[in-house]
Design goal:
It is built from 9 helices and 7 strands. With 217 residues, it is α/β, with parallel strands linked by helices.
Length: 217
């Protein structure tokens, strides 16, 4: 698939006003081309969150940490975390097409084909030591209230690491003047503590990303 076609397909998944159901449908349609597309577009999200988590957890302890990959796609984050010594990784991903490919990686222990942030899911409270999500805060993807689920399923003392396209904080109605204030409100309520916020140059499509790392209280 050429660069122009890749750009068009990726844009379809992040166009303004796209609904969650349409996002899932679109991802399933192009799942078999996903890795090729994101590679051609210079996407760094999977590596960014995997490196961030590994930098905070000693190598000799990684095998004991239980990790959840939210919006896991084709399993890019899981593969990288496995390579870094994490061996107990679950995935939640609503797109069947992506999930079918994710399972083939062998990187994940349990998989959940469902949404996060919609009021109910199968994930248990305080179940994970680490939560990662790369690229899931995007139009029609994860709602602001998804933060509640992230905190709920992460153990006290556990890490939550989020990376997203920075421009979405200004251009996506769901997040504009809402996502960061909600994150801050959760901190005021002592639900989690901010450990780091970092701008990531050329995160995807030659556009900057933003990396958030919090520790659940």
């Amino acid at each position: 698939m050429d660069q122009k076609t890749a750009r068009e397909v990726i844009d379809r998944c992040t166009e303004p006003g796209i609904t969650p159901d349409k996002v899932v449908e679109t991802y399933s349609e192009w799942a078999q081309y996903y890795d090729e597309l994101v590679d051609s577009d210079g996407y760094k999200g999977c590596k960014i969150v995997a490196d961030e988590v590994a930098s905070r957890i000693p190598e000799d302890k990684r095998g004991t940490f239980k990790v959840i990959d939210v919006g896991a796609g084709t399993g890019g984050v899981g593969r990288l975390l496995r390579d870094k010594g994490f061996s107990n990784i679950d995935a939640i991903e609503p797109s069947k097409g992506m999930m079918d490919l994710l399972k083939k990686t062998g990187a994940y222990t349990n998989t959940y084909e469902e949404f996060l942030g919609v009021g109910q899911n199968s994930l248990l409270k305080d179940a994970y030591d680490v939560l990662v999500t790369a690229g899931c805060f995007a139009p029609g993807h994860l709602p602001v209230k998804g933060i509640d689920d992230m905190i709920r399923i992460t153990k006290p003392g556990g890490l939550v690491t989020i990376v997203m396209r920075k421009e979405f904080l200004d251009h996506v109605e769901e997040y504009k003047d809402r996502l960061i204030p909600y994150m801050d409100e959760m901190e005021r309520q002592e639900k989690w503590i901010k450990e780091d916020v970092e701008i990531v140059p050329e995160y995807a499509c030659q556009l900057d990303g933003i990396l958030f790392t919090y520790r659940v209280v």
